[in-house]
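Hi support team,

I'm filing this because I wasn't sure whether my run with zinc ion finished correctly. The job status page said complete, but I'd like someone to confirm that the output block is well-formed before I use it downstream. Pasting the exact inputs I used:
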Amino acid sequence: MPIQLTNICRWRLYDYFDGHSQLRVNDTYHRYQVLMTRLNILRSYQSASSGATRSVTNTMLVWDTGASIGLTPFRSDFIDYLPLDGVTVKDIARTNAVLGIGTIMWKLPTTKGHAVFIPAVAYHMPDCDIHLFSPQSYFNLHGGDATVTACSVEMRLPDTHVVDIPFDPTVNLPVIHCPQPTLEEQDKFGPHLLSSVVANTLNVTGLAKPICCKTVADVTNNNLTGPQRELIQWHSKLCINMHHVQELMRDRHYKIPNSDDLVLPPILFTKNATARSCSVPRCLACGLSTQKLRSPNVKTSRAKPAKDGILKFNQYEPGDKVFTDQFVVHTPGRHLDGYGREGPERSFHGGTLYSDAASNLVYVECQTSLGAGETVMGKERFEQMCWNLAGVTIKN
Ligand SMILES: [Zn+2]
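And here is everything the job wrote out:
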C-alpha cells in the first residue's frame, strides 16, 4: 500500500490547528496559506516517493515543534507502553483513536559520526503515517536546546552531543530518515533509558490536561443538595459558621415599641430558596478545628514480678503442661497447598496457638473455622508432631 499522503497532510493540519483557541482570525488565515503551501510540498514529496510502502523502517521522523507530544503508528517502537482507553485526537477530517502512550527510543546520528539514543514520549496512533518528535517536550524533560538555521536544525543534547538534522529539500522539514533502533539495540539500551524517564518523574497525567482538584462543593458531589452546596460555598467564602450564614439569608425582623415590626430584606440573596433552612452539611475544616481531646476509660495493668511464670511453676518436663489459645484473623489467608483459589470462605480465618510450659515450644495450627471439629483435629496434629519430633506425650 503506498503512503497515504492525505494522512500526512492531516497530521500537519492537526498540528497547525492544535492551538486554535489562541489564534487570531487574520493569524489563522496567514497560517492557513502557509499550511496549504506545505501541503502541496508534501504532496509532491509523496508523488516523488510513490511506490514505497509504509513500514517501520521507511517511516520518517519529523522534528516538529508544532507537536505537543510525539506520535508513532507502530507499537514496536515503544520500549515501555501504557494502553489508553477512550483517548482520541481530533483533526479536521475525523477523530483518531489513541491506543496507548509510552516511551520511544530514537536513534539519532551525531556530528561526531556515531549514533545516540534518546527517549521520547509519544502516543501510539495506528492511523498516522509519520513519526513526530516533539523537541520541546524532550527539552522540558531532559534539557538541551536547538538552533534552526537555513539548511538544518542543530540539536544540542544535554550531554553535549550535537545532532544535525538537515531539512529535507522535498518537504522543507527537518527529517530523520531512519530513526528506528534495531531490536537488539532496543533490548540493550532501552532499560537504561527507562530509568532516566523514571528519574525525570514522568507521569502520564502530567502529559494530559492539568488536574484541577475538586472541592466538596463541586456540582458532581452527589452527597450535597443544591441548597446545601450554596450554603457551603457561602461558608467557605465568608468563613463564618453555617448557622450564622443561614441567618444572613433570612428576612430580618426588628421589634419597634408602639409600632409594627420592621422587616428588612436578607443580607445574602440566594439562588436556592431553601438554603436558609436546609440541614447544615459537615465541613472538614470546621470539624477539624472543633476537635477535642478525649480520654476514654483506659486501664493500665502491670505484671507483679512475684507472680511471673506462676502457671509454669513445677512443670519440669516437656509435655507436662501445654497452654493453648485461639486467635481470629479477619483477612482470609491462603492455604499452604493448592493455588490460592479456594475463595474467602474456605481460606484460613484464624487458628490455635500451643505453648509448652517447660520447653517454651510454640506451635501454630491455622484453621478455616474455629469450631470444635477442626480444633480437635489440630490438637491431634500437634500431639503427633510432639511425639514424632521429640518422643514427648502431652499430659495436660
Ligand atoms: Zn467550615
